[in-house]
Amino acid sequence: MPRFALLLFLASLTTTVFAHEKVADDMARAANTFTASLNAEQKTKTLFPFESEERVNWHFVPRERKGLSFRDMTEAQQKLAHTLINTGLSAQGYRRVNDIISLEDLLFEIESATRTDPKDKASVRERRNPAKYHLSIFGEPSMKSIWGWRFEGHHLSLNYTIKNGHLLRTAPHFFGSNPAEIRQGPRAGLRVLAEEEDHGRTLAASLNDQQWKQALVSEKAYPDILTGNSRKAKTLEPLGLSTADFSESQTTYLQQLVRTHLFRMRPEVAEDRWKEILTEGPLHFAWAGSRKPNEPHYYRVQGKSFLLEYDNTQNNANHIHTVWRDFNGDFGDDLLRQHLEQDHGLKK
């Protein structure tokens, strides 16, 4: 390798390491500041061993969860929790998180509008409660350990794993929106995941007849993302249209689509992951359902190391689910495997 090229490579590597360390340091500081504000009972709800099975017990439906919920925090603690949440996201990602949480109040208004019994309204309020989002920390946050944290509630699951202050994984991460578009009231027109839908449609609409035949894997959209809340990401058959058969403009559309999902995460880390994806060879784009607006549809993009899924079928195609999975990196599986091999003598 020429000396100049080698220097550029080393500079890029140094920048990447520094970026990961900066993110990990931000997270550790925010996590420790948050936990320092908690009383003994709150810590019992928040803190888990890194090896706990709870770390991989993720979901995205409105159900009871472990972890400390916002309704069990003081206002000051909620602000500290948001500081931690913000360390893992880009500006647009953090905005999406807050918009998704705010939709719980809208769902409460819609679902309680016809209820006359106060007990029924109270039941709906319990189910559709923007304070029912939970924060959990696994292991001891530091720059010299393996640890992780999760923020989760209805239509959100953000999972992070850090090792020795510089290796970071941000999967699985789930963003959903119900409704996908608010169609009446003072917030009419808000589409929390608009780019995720629009970039997918742009790419699908650009395909010629032959390409469309390859990309369309089902005339009917699937009722939900196919991977669900599986512990380990399912390696789906790479059906659909290979990017090797894309035009230059279609490649640009596909890259915009993938980056929209990926760059909801902290941009320094997302950029590094994006560079990895670019070296992995062709991606596959698959579509199911209709290309017409307001009709059920589904798409996925699959590469060697990742899968992103998008589904909009529920509530008359006005209810979006999206997920990003890393085949080897979900919940830091690759980092944990390295740790066991290097530090505990586990054979490969």
From TrEMBL:
Signal sequence annotation: 1-19
Keyword Kinase (UniProt): no
Cell membrane found in the keyword field: no
Pfam families for this protein: DUF3500
Superkingdom of the source species: Bacteria
InterPro entries named in the record: DUF3500
Keywords: Signal
Protein name per its UniProtKB record: DUF3500 domain-containing protein
Organism for this UniProt entry: Phragmitibacter flavus
